[in-house]
Amino acid sequence: MKAYKNVFIFDHPLIKHKIAILRDKNTGMKEFRELIEEITTIMTYESMRDVKLIPVQVETPLETTTQYKVPEESVAIVPILRAGLGMVNGVHKVFPTAKVGHIGMYRDEETLQPQEYYCKLPEGIENKTVFLVDPMLATGGSACDALDALKKRGCKNIKFMAVIAAPQGVEAVAKAHPDVPVYVSTLDRCLNENGYILPGLGDAGDRLFGTK
Ligand code: PRP
Ligand code: URA
Question: How confident is the prediction for the chain on average, in pLDDT?
């Protein structure tokens, strides 16, 4: 895959360890959910390296000092339903007061085209750093459409996070939204004829919610 300036692939040994367990078809729903959450928290830390901190005065037991904090109310989380819901708590671990919007998308199983069925976003989202989250980036259709929807609402500062991605999904988002940093914990080999990521982990929504 060509290198894109806005794409960041994590190569962290701890993430690799967790991904190995996540992929295993014998990993049950509870552990799967916990792993998605833990990986998301690690990714959130890494993706905030460029955050603008604000100065605050702190009184230590000894003196007053100028320190720096993240303006917490400036963050929002938007999961792409359903599977993105599994990543919300992982971001909330870092930003517990972040407001949450929801974008509902499903892929038509024949055409693989995303269909939007729900969109509810917090007021003032256009002025926040928005974490758009979805564990799976396959063809990239869902992510591109969700990014279009957020931009239509005026969002200017969006970060997209996916746990596992196929090269064509990464390329589709990187090309259509060059202004959006794309954080991917693991880049997989390819898609199969049904649009599933290989080696992948199967259907993330079903494994998170036990629907199959
Ligand atoms: C999955 C996944 C992404 C999408 C990725 O959702 O969670 O949203 O597929 O595929 P794409 O990159 O080709 O668009 P799915 O449509 O299975 O819906 P679900 O989360 O409700 O199961
Ligand atoms: N959605 C999933 O849940 N898994 C895939 O491999 C591709 C899309």
Answer: 95
pTM of the full structure: 0.94
Q: Which of 23, 33, 107, 153 is catalytic?
A: 107
pLDDT reported for residue 39: 97
Task: Give the dihedral sign, CA 130/134/140/145.
Answer: negative
Neighbour tally for 110: CB within 10 Å: 7
pLDDT digits (tens, 9 = 90+) for 113-167: 889 999 999 999 999 999 999 999 999 999 999 999 999 999 999 999 999 999 9
List 111, 148, 179, 189, catalytic entry = 111
In short, whether 138's Cβ falls inside 6 Å of ligand 2 is yes
Q: Relative to the CA of 206, which ligand 2 atom is closest?
A: 3
Which residue's CA lies nearest to atom 7 of ligand 2? 196
* Other CB atoms within 10 A of residue 127 CB: 13
Can you give the pLDDT at residue 50?
Answer: 86
According to DSSP, residue 139 is labeled S
| Architecture per CATH, 7-209 | 3-Layer(aba) Sandwich (3.40)
86 lines ligand 1 (CB under 6 A): no
Nearest-10 crossing angle of helices 13-23, 29-47 = 150
